[in-house]
Specification:
The protein has helices at residues 2-16, 20-35, 43-63, 68-96, 102-105, 115-121, 124-143, 151-170, 183-197, 206-215, 273-279, 295-304, 315-318, 327-332, 351-357, 366-369, 385-396, 435-458, 485-496, 521-529, 618-636, and strands at 222-224, 233-235, 248-254, 283-285, 288-289, 337-342, 362-364, 378-379, 382-383, 403-408, 466-472, 500-503, 510-512, 516-517, 551-555, 560-564, 567-570, 595-598, 614-615. With 652 residues, it is α/β, with parallel strands linked by helices. The protein has two domains: 2-197, no CATH class; 206-641, Alkaline Phosphatase, subunit A (3-Layer(aba) Sandwich).
Length: 652
């Protein structure tokens, strides 16, 4: 008994009490990290929190061995660094339901431009615990410095705490399981995983290559020549239109305009009357999907016909030198002028280096448009959609060469609280201020701008030889009240289903019903232009016969949904913690494997039978996973197109 009392005395008076400020600081930080998720952790999460606590206390205690002035400086620096990490992680979690990782940190420089949305999602308890409380504790420590622990006592405490931390660290994988992981420990694991991934074998496995060959487009006039570049297709005869037949392309990429809000796709209170009218005289796809959950990921699919990588920052951001066959570059090589128009800066997500190296000659971004005279109007995150359209037409109408142009809308962006300056129809409830209704007002504003653009375009000479493609970039998740798995599946469908409308010379009004996705757009545009050129597109032209059964991946944060004909697989969401979640569900047993089912109907209007739902068939999800992994390997290891003939034989 005396031995136990002696140990407790040492623990209390020689370890805990002298290091009380360290424990208080570490506890505040760990608690703030846990408040991020808005819910209590599982047992594994508590153990992970404890390991983070040990790591932080060891770090703080180590700082006390430094000279006094240096200790003070390092302590304040650590408080602000960890405070910034905790608050940033909180905002990132609110947007993406995942913790910060090295990949996410790659574009933290864009955080300031997201301020209008970020401030609405900021959790003040996290700020109070992660920054304000820690500053108060540090001030208290400065006024009443604790005695320093002797090295004789510190060493065994360090070793025990570090051993426990490393033991816990070694039994975790860097996955988005917030109930089981501490954000700081996750960041460390993800960093370790990122380093190990650099040593990953670049070669496709036999199974990955098998499914990639099965999934890639099968076209009679193209052939695949080398397994080192399994998507690189070479035409049997190069076709080029005569100069008198050369035509233009304007691709209008619409920010956050999902199919579910359109009358064209069955909404009786349509937010898009202009697009609905345009589609009646155009080619439009009734079952069209986003391949990613962010604008730049959608642009990679729309311009380069490739899937972005999972668990990583967007490829556009981190790999401007990607050896891809992107549509602007292919057309530039055929004598086209290439333009990109957007109301925000081209440095957002580091677009500029990627776009300039992949064929865009001129980036007309918000920084350039703000210098125009007379000044252009601003709405939300940048120049208003009507003014961007007018500016683009002013440039394109003067072009003497054939051109390819992307016009990216912007005004319809979270938090949708802008002054639209136009009357909102009664059917869209103009007096409401909830985010769902405001979102529909934003869609109506973008549609209004498209109507003005279309009226001017139709009256210009451009309409005689220009294809216009209207396509969405991604949906918006405003559905956090799912009460059943069936409802959750409908929410995923509404999130990923997008509009695709194409109008131009030679295109007859048609409803295209075969499932398609963003990666099909580049091949479709090349086909309309009449070019047969070597490319490495995952998609294929919708103007040619398309197999009814082919793969469609819908990548999101760290996983994907998958459709293969009528077979569909969806990732279940996590339980809701509070209303700050953008993706969550409120029914029991939400965390489970992929749910797969076969359904021939339209999920925007119909529901499958509950009896049809089940865990993913192993073969279905295996081929989906292997195909996705193979495509990501091609992107990561530059196996899309060679730079020269020598690349076919050089080791990677």
């Amino acid at each position: 008994m005396k031995f136990i009392q002696h140990l407790l005395h040492i623990l209390l008076h020689q370890i805990l009490w002298p290091a009380r400020y360290n424990w208080m600081l570490a506890l505040c930080w760990v608690a703030a990290m846990r408040v991020t998720t808005g819910r209590l952790p599982m047992l594994a999460g508590l153990i992970d929190d404890l390991s983070a606590l040990c790591l932080l206390v060891i770090l703080l205690t180590t700082l006390h061995r430094l000279p006094k002035a240096l200790t003070t400086f390092c302590m304040w620096a650590l408080v602000f660094a960890l405070g910034a990490f905790i608050i940033s992680n909180d905002l990132y979690f609110a947007f993406y339901r995942g913790y910060l990782s090295p990949a996410a940190l790659a574009h933290t420089g864009d955080a300031g431009r997201a301020a209008p949305s970020a401030l609405m999602l900021l959790s003040w308890p996290v700020v109070a615990l992660g920054l304000l409380a820690t500053i108060a504790i540090l001030i208290g420590r400065h006024r009443q410095p604790p005695p320093r622990l002797s090295l004789k006592i510190q060493l065994p405490v360090w070793l025990v705490g570090l051993a426990f931390c490393m033991l816990v660290f070694s039994f975790r994988n860097p996955i988005y399981m917030h109930a089981k992981e501490n954000p700081l420990m996750y960041l460390l694991r993800a960093s370790q995983n990122e380093l190990s991934n650099q040593l990953e074998d670049a070669n496709l496995t036999a199974q990955e290559l098998k499914w990639l060959k099965t999934f890639r487009p099968q076209k009679n006039n193209y052939q695949y020549e080398n397994d080192d570049f399994p998507l690189l297709a070479t035409p049997s005869s190069t076709q080029k239109p005569s100069p008198t037949m050369q035509r233009n392309v304007i691709m209008v990429v619409m920010e956050s305009v999902p199919a579910v809000e359109m009358g064209l796709y069955g909404n009786q209170e349509s937010a898009t009357p202009q697009l609905d009218a345009i589609a009646q005289e155009s080619f439009w796809a009734s079952t069209f999907y986003a391949n990613g959950n962010q604008t730049v990921r959608g642009e990679l699919a729309l311009l380069c016909s490739m899937l972005d990588r999972l668990k990583s920052a967007p490829v556009v951001t981190i790999n401007p030198d990607l050896r891809a066959t992107c549509l602007p570059r292919l057309l530039k090589e055929q004598g086209y002028r290439t333009h990109w128009f957007h109301g925000n800066t081209s440095s957002f997500f580091r677009r500029a280096p990627f776009f300039l190296r992949h064929g865009f000659e001129k980036l007309h971004d918000g920084e350039l448009l703000k210098k125009q005279e007379p000044p252009l109007n601003e709405v939300g995150w940048g120049i208003s959609d009507p003014d961007v359209f007018d500016y683009a037409l002013n440039i394109l109408e003067k072009e003497q060469q054939p051109f390819f142009a992307e016009v990216m809308t912007l005004s319809n962006h979270h938090p949708f609280t802008w002054d639209w300056g136009i009357p909102i129809p009664e059917r869209l409830n103009p007096g409401a201020d909830d985010v769902e209704t405001l979102f529909r007002h934003g869609i109506y504003y973008t549609d209004h701008a498209i109507g003005q653009f279309w009226k001017r375009f139709s009256a210009s000479k451009l309409s005689e030889n220009t294809l216009v493609v209207f396509v969405g970039d991604h949906g918006l998740w405003l559905y956090d009240q799912a009460t059943s798995q069936l409802e959750e599946i409908g929410q995923w469908e509404r999130y990923f289903r997008l509009p695709l409308i194409m109008a131009g010379p030679g295109i007859s009004p048609q409803r295209f019903t075969t499932p398609a996705s963003q990666v099909d757009v580049p091949a479709t545009i090349l086909d309309w232009l009449g070019y047969d050129v070597p490319h490495a597109f995952l998609g294929q032209s919708l103007f040619k016969p398309v197999p009814a059964v082919r793969p469609i991946w819908m990548h999101h944060e760290a996983d994907f949904n998958f459709r293969y004909g009528d077979d569909r697989c969806y990732t279940p969401m996590s339980e809701c913690g509070n209303d700050r979640y953008l993706r969550c569900t409120r029914y029991a047993d939400a965390i489970s494997p992929h749910t797969c089912f076969s359904f021939q109907g339209d999920l925007l209007r119909q529901k499958p039978s509950p009896d049809a739902l089940g865990q993913a068939d192993s073969q279905t999800i295996t081929k989906a996973l292997l195909g996705s992994r193979a495509l990501q390997k091609l992107v990561k290891h530059q196996q899309i197109r060679p730079t020269s003939a020598k690349d076919f034989s050089q080791p990677r």
